[in-house]
Automatic annotation (TrEMBL):
Belongs to the complex I NDUFA2 subunit family. Its main location: mitochondrion. It is found in: Mitochondrion inner membrane. It holds the Pfam family L51_S25_CI-B8. Gene3D superfamilies: Glutaredoxin. This is Ribosomal protein/NADH dehydrogenase domain-containing protein. It is a peripheral membrane protein. Transmembrane segments: none annotated. Residues 20-93 form the Ribosomal protein/NADH dehydrogenase domain. Keywords: Electron transport, Membrane, Mitochondrion, Mitochondrion inner membrane, Respiratory chain, Transport.
């Protein structure tokens, strides 16, 4: 998973939005619990914003160079699917730099 250490090269900011209690956000909560420390350790200067709010649909947002943003809804995704979605966003950031 070498892409994880390159997040800060391809993204300017990562935001994860979810509900602290809604069933649709359960995989997102698990993803954060299991992956946040590793992502932050590998990308210490990358802002990773965790936003909890009741009745919020789980979403993953990435901000790239020049203020370009892309978001992905995480409803009913598994932890592995969320990881793949983050990897795909990192690839988008790399493509935008080309």
């Amino acid at each position: 998973m070498a892409w994880r250490s390159n997040l800060s090269k391809n993204l300017k900011e990562l935001r994860i939005l979810f509900s602290p209690s809604a069933p649709a956000s359960s995989s997102t909560r698990v993803f954060i619990e299991r992956n946040y420390k590793d992502l932050k350790k590998l990308n210490p200067k990358l802002p990773i914003l965790i936003r909890e709010a009741d009745n919020t649909e789980p979403q993953l947002w990435a901000r790239f160079d020049f203020g370009v943003e892309r978001g992905i809804r995480l409803d009913s995704m598994t932890e592995d699917q969320i990881s793949k979605a983050l990897e795909d966003l990192a690839k988008v950031g790399a493509a935008l730099k080309s």
